[in-house]
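Project outcomes to date are best conveyed with an example. Our students and postdoctoral researchers have been running inverse folding experiments weekly, and each run begins with a structure described purely in tokens. The record below, which covers 177 residues, was selected by the lab manager from last quarter's runs and is presented without edits.
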């Protein structure tokens, strides 16, 4: 038992000398090799002036924007990518941040959309700015597109009805049929 009294302090001394070297040096925060890459990108990338305007996502109807985001992702990537759509929507739906930072969004989406990210973000941000100004939270562009679509549909329906009536008149004329 007397040997144990000598061995334990010896082991503790050895462990202490091993661990004391473990905590020496610099932390990741102090080492320039591990600096915040996002912060560097924020300073070096030129962003459009619209990004200076904040968007309150509580005023935006995101369900109306989801199909646009999905369509644009397909357009840019050449395929449907639900992961990218959900990621982009998740950045907008973050309740802890009701006013998202478009600059950080662009940086975060660049890994997925690469060179198309600035154009995507500029278009998206302009729609969000329009939507927050609208009482229903729907971008004015979408409302105008829907109105135009309804006008075209109505015009086509009118033409179809006129054609039907014309054919009926032709069928009713004496000496035909």
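After processing, the design step wrote out the following sequence:
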């Amino acid at each position: 038992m007397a040997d144990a009294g000598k061995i334990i302090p010896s082991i503790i001394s050895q462990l202490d000398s091993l661990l004391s070297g473990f905590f020496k040096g610099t932390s990741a925060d102090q080492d320039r090799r591990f600096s915040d890459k996002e912060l560097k990108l924020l300073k070096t990338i030129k962003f459009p002036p619209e990004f200076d305007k904040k968007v309150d996502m509580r005023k935006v109807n995101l369900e109306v924007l989801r199909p646009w985001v999905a369509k644009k992702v397909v357009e840019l990537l050449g395929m449907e990518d639900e992961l990218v759509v959900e990621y982009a929507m998740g950045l907008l739906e973050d309740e802890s941040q009701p006013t998202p930072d478009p600059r950080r969004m662009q940086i975060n989406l660049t890994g997925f959309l690469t060179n198309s990210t600035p154009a995507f973000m500029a278009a998206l941000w302009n729609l969000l700015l329009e939507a927050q100004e609208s009482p229903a939270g729907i971008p004015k562009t979408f409302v105008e597109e829907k109105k135009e679509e309804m006008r075209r549909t109505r015009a086509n329906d009118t033409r179809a009805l006129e054609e039907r009536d014309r054919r009926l008149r032709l069928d009713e004329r004496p000496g035909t049929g």
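The chain has two domains: 49-138, 139-172. Residues 140-172 form the longest helix (33 residues). The training component of this project remains on track.
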